Structures are given as structure tokens and as C-alpha cells.
Amino acid sequence: MSPTIYRLQCNTQSYDWGKLGNVSKVAHYANKSGATTDPTKPYAELWMGTHPNAPSILAGTDTTLKSIIEANPDLSSSAIYEQYNKDLPFLFKILSIRKALSIQAHPDKILGARLFKEFPSIYKDPNHKPEMAIAITPFEALCGFRPLNEIADHIQRYPEFEGLIGSDVSARFVSTVQNTDAAESENKAVLKAVFEALMNSPQEKVTEQLNALIERLKDTKAEDTISNLLLRLDQEYPGGDVGVFAVLMLNYVTMEPGQAIFLGANEPHAYLSGDCVECMATSDNVVRAGLTPKFKDVRVLVNMLTYRYGSAESQKMTPVPFGDHSLLYDPPIEEFSVVLARLKASESESQKPLAGPSILIVTSGSGELQGENSFPLDEGYVYFIGANTPITTVAGDSGLEFYRAFALPSQ
Which residue range or ranges hold the Phosphomannose isomerase type I C-terminal domain (predicted)? Predict the structure, then answer.
């Protein structure tokens, strides 16, 4: 009988926004698995899965996880193997964020396919990329548009913001928001008009208004949350980045360890700081428009967004019990769900066989994974668990925390 549990060795990505050296959870976990890391280098992401940009391999070998699944499709389940073209449906990651990521969104399947066909050098695959982030350490993000009355208040409180989007767009937005009888389509139309005007502002005007805003905040010694964010992002991306103004339009969300947000396709967001577990559909497609020196595709971003809006708390997910010591984060898509297990010293938990593939990473503590054999668990250890494999985890003296991403066949 072929094995159904494999320890993995996973690749890191050293994007500029990553935390440096072993301050990064990514580097720390990679070190625990035997990798050599550079204390001066940023370690932004640890990729766990079959994505060709950074495929996981079996520990101590050059054999890719994808080749093992191709040799034994039952590891993924025949249904998932066929539906997702021999790939895993999800890409599992650890992120360690030192400074803000770009203002971005990920396309849905229809747009993803079109962008891949038209611009394959920029958009590397045709898939959509819904994603979920679960905080490992205190975490900050911008995600989703604020309630419209908050944006209207910011237009009136920040003359530099109004100066960028123009008096006509500003007046129409504020008037529509104040009209309680306005149709939802009209609300979204004026929200799009403000965001489009902001993102298409001439660079010299952005620089002028942003400099004026930053100087005013410094002169008044403003210390509220929004002012601090504006000042911080301007320091992280100096030179007049229009994305700094996005703070006035997008929700500022803070999360404690174990709290989560789900970001559907075509929703604007930017992670700001902290460490998280992230799971997404197997894609690397990103449409950017601010807080980045990389290519900005403002036209595509402006036209792709849903322009849904709501409170910061509405962006968060509520997990449900999964086992005696575990919680299930189950977003409204079929590609993935994630289980978080927290066991105290010597506690154990048996998890029922899942009908699809899963990947498990230990984020703290140590212990043992019991399946067809016994496997050691320690920080940074990553395991692939084949479909229909029952497992039991047992915590060591320091307790055990792990995350397990999985997919199930479509019902």
C-alpha cells in the first residue's frame, strides 16, 4: 500500500515587504525544516502546494508533491484530481509582513481567463483567487470599502482628498449618500466614481496633495488611527503614492491570533503588517493600483471591483467547532477550508478522514502525528495528508498548534 502522509519541504519567497531574517515567521519555520536563511534578507511567504512558481517537494528528496499525486491520484481523490487538472485546488501560505502590500484585488474566473489570454506575461494563469487570512500574530489590513457615510465624512474632513477627486465628484457622492432613498446601484456608481477619480489622478497632483496632507498632519501632531496610518504608509512608500489615500476609502481591520478575514474575487485589500496563515485558490494573479513600485493596472482594477461596502467587522469570518480542540474556517467557495487546532500539553485529537487532500503546518509547540505511521511534529513542519486518511495528533510538553488546509470533492 502506498503512503498517504508525506513530510514536505517548502519554498520561501523574498518579496521586499517581508520581515527580515528570523524575525519573520516564514524564515523561522523554514529554518526549523532545515533551510538556511540570511538575517539581512526579507522572507515574505512560505508556499505549500503544487503551484509551479514554488512547488513543494518531499523532504530530503527532489520529488515534487505534484508528481506524487500524479502517480497516485487517489491521494487527491479522483474527483478533485480531474476537476483541478492534476493540481491541488488550493495554495497554502505563511505570510510575514514588515510593510504594506499593494492595494490589490484578484480576478474572478471569467476575468482571470481573459487577462491570462490577453496579457500572459503579467497575469500568469487563468484562475480566480479568493483567499482567506488567519492571524498568527497581531495583524493589520485594509479590506473592502468603508461604509459610505465614513467616506463622505473623509471627503469633508480631508480637503486634500477632495482636491484629488474634484469638487463635482465629491459633491455628487456626498449628496447621494445623504439621500436615504438612493438606489443601491446609484450608491455603487458614485463609489466607483470616487475611486476611479482618485486612482486616475495625475501624479504631480497626487504628490502635491499628499505632501500637503502629510505636512498638515505633522503640524497638527495628529495621533488618531487614520492619521498615523497615512503618515506610516507615506514613509513606507515615499514619493507620492496614490495608494496612501486608500486609507480614507478602505476599512482598517485589526486581528488577533485566530481571527480571520475572507477576501472574495474582485474585492480591494492590502495587508499592512503581521504574520498570518493564508489559503487561496491555486493562482498567483494580482491586479495592483497603489502602494507598490510594480506594474499598476488601474483601468482593470477600477472596472473589476464589486463596490460592495460595509463595516470593518463585516469583513471578518467566524469559525465553528470542528473537534474537541479545533475550529473550522469555511469560506463560501469550494477550493479550500482551514482547520486550526490548539492542544495543551499531552492532549490529543482525532480528526475524521477527509474526502480530499490536505496540508498541515505546525505553527507552535511540538508533538506527534499518528496515521499509517507516527511522524514528529515541530514548529515549521509541513505534511501532506492524502484523501480519506484518519489522523490523530498528540501534543508534547509545550502544547501544539497547527493549521490544516483541505479541499473536498464537489457535492
Answer: 326-370
- Show the beta-strand stretches assigned E in 208-357: 250-255, 260-263, 269-281, 287-290, 316-317, 320-323, 326-329, 337-343, 348-351
State the binding site: 104, 106, 131, 269
Residue 82, H or E segment: helix 78-83
Contacts of 54 by beta carbon, 8 Å cutoff, 6+ apart: 10, 11, 12, 13, 47
25-69 tens-digit pLDDT: 999 999 988 788 899 999 999 999 999 889 999 999 999 999 999
**Residue 275 near residue 25, CB atoms below 8 Å:** yes
Q: Please indicate whether residue 288 is annotated as part of the active site.
A: yes
Query: What topology is assigned to 147-248 in CATH?
Result: Phosphomannose Isomerase; domain 2 (1.10.441)
Q: Which of 98, 288, 342, 404 is catalytic?
A: 288
Question: What residue spans in the chain does CATH classification 2.60.120.10 cover?
Answer: 10-143+254-293, 320-406
- Which residues in the chain are classed under CATH 1.10.441.10? 147-248
- Residue 153 phi/psi, 5° resolution? -65, -40
The helix-helix angle for 184-199 and 148-157 (nearest 10°) equals 40
**How many CB atoms are closer than 10 A to CB 325?**
19
| Per-residue pLDDT tens digits for 160-182 | 999 999 999 999 999 999 998 88
Alpha carbons 93 and 45: distance in angstroms, whole number: 6
Burial 185-212 (b: 16+ CB within 10 A, else e): eebbebbbbbbbbbbebeeeebebbbee
| CB-CB contact of 401 with 365 (8 Å) | yes
Q: Structurally, what CATH architecture does the domain formed by 320-406 represent?
A: Sandwich (2.60)
Nearest Cα neighbor of 233 from 190, 272, 281 is 272
Binding residues for Zn(2+): 104, 106, 131, 269
On whether the CB atoms of residues 337 and 328 are closer than 8 A, the answer is: yes
Q: What is the pTM of this model?
A: 0.95
